[in-house]
Design goal:
Blueprint lengths: L13 E4 L4 E4 L7 E4 L2 H26 L16
Antiparallel strand pairs: 1-2, 2-3
Length: 80
């Protein structure tokens, strides 16, 4: 049986009251918006939305891996 290794990610989530519950956004994941009727439900919806977002990114990466490598953005530290 093949073992599955999972990565653990952490994201900041903003929970804004919307009159009927909470709207949740995640600044590090543009376009991700979800909501829940209670704070507990909003947290669960946020976890599910983030999971789906990341799965879509991974799927896209796999589809694009046969093409030319994409540009990378990295921070470089230099002492002067």
């Amino acid at each position: 049986m093949k073992q599955r290794h999972e990565k653990v990610f952490q994201f900041d989530a903003l929970f804004e009251p919307n009159g009927s519950g909470y709207t949740v956004t995640t600044p590090q994941l543009p376009g991700l918006v979800t909501e829940g009727g209670t704070l507990k439900e909003a947290r669960e919806m946020a976890k599910d939305a983030i999971r789906c977002y990341l799965e879509a990114l991974l799927k896209e990466q796999r589809l694009n891996s046969s093409r030319a490598p994409a540009a990378r953005k990295e921070k470089i530290t230099v002492a002067a």
